[in-house]
Design brief:
The structure is a homodimer. In chain A, about 0% of the residues lie in helices and about 50% in strands. Chain A is mainly β. In chain A, strands 1, 6, 8, 11, 13, 14 and 16 form a seven-stranded mixed sheet that branches. A five-stranded antiparallel sheet of chain A has the order 2-12-7-15-5, with no helix packed on it. A two-stranded antiparallel sheet of chain A has the order 3-4. In chain A, a hairpin with a 4-residue loop joins strand 3 and strand 4. Chain A is globular.
């Protein structure tokens, strides 16, 4: 019997140790554009490390479905990584606390379709996992010369359940 | 009779003098995540100027409809500004070339629903104009202490037509 992890809804409070939830209503609201818009200001703890700079990329990922076998997680030691869903659809977010250089027990979250996330620098996380096509995301992360990637493959996989 | 500007489809080539179109297929593609995703790498000419840093905010803007009267454009002298549509819906992008410190004749573009834009630092542009609710956008722009805003109000407005 594979070890199981049940998904929970993505909320800023539960996700805070791992990063930021990017959604309307967070942070400080400023009315702009002659009252036609609100700006929820500076919501992500962006960090591009020494020798890095901010970059904006787009990821196109194949949709997956639950239950899903989790074989590995990865982390970026030199910078944060933010994902903005361009599709208005929920996606799966897996994170794990660090325990002496390896990931502890993972946690799984499902976004509500109107949320993005920013992983703090060095946070163990699963690869990008849309649950619906086309699976397009804007990504704000570090551009730099370092490898900036560590993978951890579990000796025994986890099963992520809805 | 008000001066009119007809919208055209947003394409990277037409938009290049004003900024970057953020869409799948641009830039250099890298296969990542064991073949499960493609990364279209570093698509935006981000520029946060002296004394600034990158920030990630969310804008919620009231939807408008065409034809639309354009009374003003603005620009940010100290940094670029990128808009990622979180709604999978087209929005209106108005830009204008600079002519000696004031905007020349504006141009109007409509995105295809799967596109974002990055305005180059100092580019005259209209305020954020979704055409459909809810009008939510992730915005990557400069966080800093300078005002970083210049507005130009047209003595004679323009009419943006579909």
């Amino acid at each position: 019997m594979m070890r199981q992890i049940a998904c929970q809804p993505l909320t800023p409070a539960e996700f805070a140790p791992f990063g930021d939830v990017l959604q309307v209503g967070m942070g400080t609201a400023r009315v702009i554009n002659q009252g036609m818009a609100e700006r929820f200001h500076d919501l992500a703890r962006l960090d591009f490390g020494p020798g890095g700079r901010a970059g904006l990329s787009i990821f196109a990922a194949k949709p997956r479905s639950l239950p899903l076998q989790l074989d590995m997680v990865e982390r970026h030691p030199d910078g944060s990584q933010a994902f903005i869903a361009m599709d208005d659809a929920p996606f799966l977010i897996v994170v794990a606390p660090d325990q002496g250089g390896i990931p502890g027990t993972p946690r799984a979250f499902i976004s509500n379709g109107a949320q993005g996330v920013n992983f703090l620098r060095g946070t163990w996380h699963g690869v990008l996992t849309p649950l619906h096509p086309p699976g397009h995301f804007a990504v704000i992360d570090r551009i730099g010369d370092s490898p900036n990637l560590q993978e951890h493959w579990f000796t025994e996989p986890w099963l992520i359940t809805a």
